[in-house]
Amino acid sequence: MLLSKAHITLSALALSPFAVSTPTLDKTTYPGFVHPSNGDCKDYNVKSTVTYEQLQWDQPRYKDNYEVASLLTKVASQAKVPLPAFSGSANVTKEFQIAGTFCKPKSSNNSKQNTVFVATHGAGFDRRYWASSFKPNEYSFAQYALEAGYSIFYYDRLGVGYSSRLSGYDVEINPQVELLASILKSLRAGKYIEGIKPSNLVLVGHSFGSVISNLILGRHPELVEGAVLTGFSFPTPADPAASASGFGLSVFASRIVSTLTGDARPQFANSFDNGWLSFADKFAFTEAFLGAEDYEVPAAEYSYKIAQPYSIVDFLSAFAQPSVADKYVGKLLLAPAERDLFFCAGNCTDTFARGGQKSAFPNPKTDISLFVQEGSGHGQNFALNARDLYKAITTFADNL
Ligand SMILES: *[C@@H]1O[C@H](CO)[C@@H](O)[C@H](O)[C@H]1NC(C)=O
Ligand SMILES: *[C@@H]1O[C@H](CO)[C@@H](O)[C@H](O)[C@H]1NC(C)=O
Ligand SMILES: *[C@@H]1O[C@H](CO)[C@@H](O)[C@H](O)[C@H]1NC(C)=O
Question: What residue stretches are annotated with the AB hydrolase-1 domain (predicted)?
Fold first, then answer.
């Protein structure tokens, strides 16, 4: 498991007061971002009040990129270097706003549209990961799913895009899991989905979004009928992937987002504090996300242009959470990239052959299938063969 060697300790701390609401950006549509042409789509700002266990990060804040570099060296180290840890946790209730898009097929009116994919992007992206405006015929999962007759809800995770902005030292996994649970309950009740009565809700996660989706299967297994986890794996301790994954953040060549200039400065850079990091340049991004051969340069340029910052605290919080989903008895498609560096040290066929997924989903009733996207790197939706992945996902939905 990525960063599993982080010795993250939790101890109970007194409740501390939290602000009630968080800022968002004014607009809700990205410049140049278009909805899938075959979809009947609408953008929403979903307000949710959630209760969750807030992990507390009392470490000194980064002064500069030298401190970020030192932290990443420690995270990547094979030695048992002590990492900064959370000092405790407290249960809090807070309201957030999540910006999302719902689309149903424009032309079809069969029962398939009542199956709704609920898509959660990973770190370094926002909801546009699922709906590329660049060559959508090749790269947009939303368009592919709509073409196959399905509906989709895709949203900006807490902290990025047009969802509530948080300090990079406060953003963490638990509110994200509860926000997704809250979205699923709303969709089930017919909210934000334009007259659809959902018969199946199917999680689709990428990377960090798969970590969140996996935690839904662990904590709220009754909320969905199916789940697809991409850009994610369950390495056993002896798998080289289990220890190599700490290098992942180093490959990002992470820098404090406000120090980046020119092309490297992501959209909305001014709205992120120095707890947020981004890629030093487009080559670091390409190295981290795209397979060595399985991409075209214009797709690398486009996906870099829509990249968003991420937070190390967010990462550390994710891997401080147990991920065993023993009560989930629905269908599950594990769909990693063959050459994923972060999660499989470059060979997911090998990582999945070792069977770690059986410990993550120990219930014999969980129906697990596996699709490995040939030759692709971690950013699977921008690989040349993204449509092979999409076909595997819609075929999975056909058989729910
Ligand atoms: C938060 O609430 C849960 C559920 O009631 C409880 O198990 C947990 O111990 C609480 N955590 C803290 C830090 O109070
Ligand atoms: C879709 O089908 C349902 C049930 O057959 C029907 O009630 C509804 O009017 C149809 N909607 C459209 C837009 O054709
Ligand atoms: C990946 O791992 C599998 C299973 O261990 C192995 O058969 C295959 O040769 C490896 N692929 C590469 C490209 O090394």
Answer: 118-381
